[in-house]
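Team,

Forwarding the record for the chain on the shared tracking sheet. I've put the sequence and predicted structure together so nobody has to dig through attachments.
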Amino acid sequence: MTRTQHIHPILEEGIDRKVLTTLRARFLAVNSARLERALQAMSTRQQQVLKLLPLLFHVNHPILPGYVSATTPAGLAHFVPDAEQLAEAQRLSRSFAYKPARGKLPQPILGLFLMGSLGTVAQDEHSDLDVWVCHDPALDAGQIEELRRKCELLQAWAASQGSEAHFFLVDPQRFNQGQREARLTSDDCGTTQHYLLLDEFYRTALWLGGRIPLWWLVPDYEEHRYDEYVATLLAKRFVRADEVLDLGHLGQVPPGEFVGAGLWQLYKAIASPYKSLFKLLLVEVYASQYPQLRCLALDFKQAIYQGRIELNELDPYIAAYLAIERYLGARGDHERLELARRCLYLKINRPLSRPPVNRNKSWQRSLLERLTHDWHWDERQFALLDNRGHWKVRQVSQERRVLVNELTYGYRFLSDFTRRLQATSPLTSRDLGVLGRRLYAAIERKAGKVEVVNLGISPDMAEHSLTLVHDYDAAGDVRWSLYQGQLTAPELSNFAPLKRSRELVALLAWCHRNGVVDVSTHLSLFPGDSGLSEAELFALFSDLRRALPMPLCPVDEEALLAASKPSRVLLLINIGLDPTQQAPTASAIGEQSMLNAAPESLVLSVDQVTLNSWNEMLVTRYEGPKALPLCLRDYLDSLERVVQAPQLQVFCFARNRGQAIARRVEQIFEDARQSLASVAHGRYLLQVRQHFHMLQREANALRLTHLSDRAALLEHLGEAHHAYSPLRLDRCALEGDDLALILAQGRPGCLQVFYRTAGEIAELSVLDECNALWRQQLPYRDERTLLRPLMRFLESMLYRRNAQQPGQSQELVDPAILFYRIQPGQGARPAQLERRAAPQGEVNDPFYDVQAIVEAGENGRSQVTLYCNHQEFSGLEYGAELFAAVTRTIISRRRDGERYPCYITDLDLTGLHGSGRSQTVQYLRYKARLEAALNAAMES
């Protein structure tokens, strides 16, 4: 197209209708030329869709596509089908005959436009049709719904013809006021931008029929008083209102729109970086000009007014690139400029390293050749980009660095722009938060996280063959290395690995997450001394694919607005390890014993692979004898504030007892989760061999205590809680031990006494009101003399507690006291509990009241005062002889001076613990210590 005369209308000097006619003709000429370019790039069937669209909205005929009912709005303003369109309609339906309307009928379809890449340098065979259907604002809700249904039918018909079409209903009146309910392009971020969408519309739209945009007739230098100019055009009838469509102006773009548009492009760039980063750069160019912004659509309009109507110069993608080039060039951002050029090259998608199709060079290719010549690109650069579909790890990793830098820069630019100008849009703060988390999940590195390398860079990163090697670094630490190709041992030193990791599963998860290994990849293994077999390696990959299929579903905003939480968890047990073959263990208890051991005792390592609600994949490894409880602790801790437990799968690939180990571990994790779920202060006891592991739910965390043996367990169970702490035993913990019977009986607000006898020795156990355990061995004569002193002590303690704190609830202050006798097991019958009545006292009981008062002394030592039948014995008076003096008094009052044990019948701890309520187990511990001192003095 050639250069024509410059038109410069001035409102105050009057407007010539001939000038307006000339302008309209120029815009329509550019439009026709672009439309012709769009048709040239389409198949015959796609061309038919585009040519017929105006007719299908103008005519409502049952035999044509898109027919809904006789009342569906139809009639495109000022449209008269040409011979080619009627011929296309008859090819589609031979019985169709067009009958022009008689008289003036309603024409509710005011305008029909295409917007996007059609007719531009970026159009290809996959470009979709974004169609704006501008309708009469007077249509009622029923008519709009019928029109929407017509659009859905036309979309389906277009798809059947090989065209992806999207139709958007536009009320020009509401749109001009900034009101719209839906997206207006398939690449639209919704209501957060209006003017930038209008800018894109004005510079890319193809007019298909109906009224023309009134914006065409307002000079770019009059944009600041657009409304005044338009009012004059209409009032003085320079243009007729029914010939034009007013969608608004670009006089001033609010800063919040740059944020909204930028956020949308950043969001899309995570999955489709090249197309979106190009648009993001244009948003940055615009934002950097604020408030003196001049949209590219105004340059487009100015060029037409000046008669510069050469299509390549007016191409919206070329104009956008040139603006980006000027901006980045002025800043010296050469790396970012090269990225912008790659984005444009890949968007145009005309591979210059290959000959043109059918030896016919398209106008897009010719234009791209001129551009890349100016960029000084060579054949090597063309070959690299044209081969992007085959890029593998090395090239993708290099490109990822550039893309991540750009994404990070874009996010920081928008954040800074928002703060600096206090730019607000309806969802700015929310979207910034969501996008920040989306970027964090996609690109941020952290311990244990599997890095996502392929950010929409290559469609397929699977390698044909790989070599996996286990060896040691210079410091003697284990490492796993992954090499490209099928290498022999001598060749390894000549190649650099694709990836190294200290943990095998972390490396394999990286391969799976990034699609480096698929079912067709040939994987060679050099296991070293790891014990990993090829069968185990292939089984591991197979289960990773089944449990965590790729690609992952997109993360919705609601998930990102909440803290991340685990959604799927894989536990991989003993990878590369066989517990029956481990030298230290096998030599200790024998291989056959190992084969018969409890499955949980055979867990030597756990590799946990977690996929969370932000689609982050994390790998954590646990090794050694505490691997299972540590993994269990972290797993349960991650479920804090999680409503629904993640999907848990456990795998163990060991040849010996692998399935049994996996089933048992899964059982432990599920039992522990249910035991501690929503239970305040809950505890769970796991036993592995002779070691015990106590998990306890506290205010903000889960505490894990390792207990080396049964004695350590008993000491831990005797610690005071000051609140009821339910205890759940793993189903295999303390198997065959009477302690399991006792601990299973815990009840809040209840004192439970358990006893068993063995000859002249009895064992007393008490579970107090908070479920703490106290245990003592005593000489046994009969049941009454064993239990009555304890009963008297507990009653005195409860009486004292009740008197000291009358405000406490009865349940806490005065709990029930229950007694159980432990009946030992016989043969196959396990031990059982027998409920017993509380021991009854008699008038001639040979027991004296022995009361103790314990107070805090100096240097952290406590001071004890004893009362024997109300006679005071103070440490201040007797010093080290205190307990001997008391025992002499007790013995002197017994018949024949008998020397059976002494018992404390009452104890006051308020001088030690203050007025706060002491727990029963604390009273019992002090009671046992005092009684031990008294009885030791008696024996001496």
